[in-house]
Amino acid sequence: MRLKKYTDYALRVLMYTATKNEEKVSIKEIAETFFISSEHIRKVVHQLSKAEYIETTRGRNGGIVLAKSPTDINIGSVIRIMENDFYLLECFDDGHNQCVITPACHLRHVIGEAMNAFFQVLDQYTLADLMENKEELRALMNQ
Question: Residue 16 and residue 11: Cα distance in Å, rounded?
Answer without folding.
Answer: 9
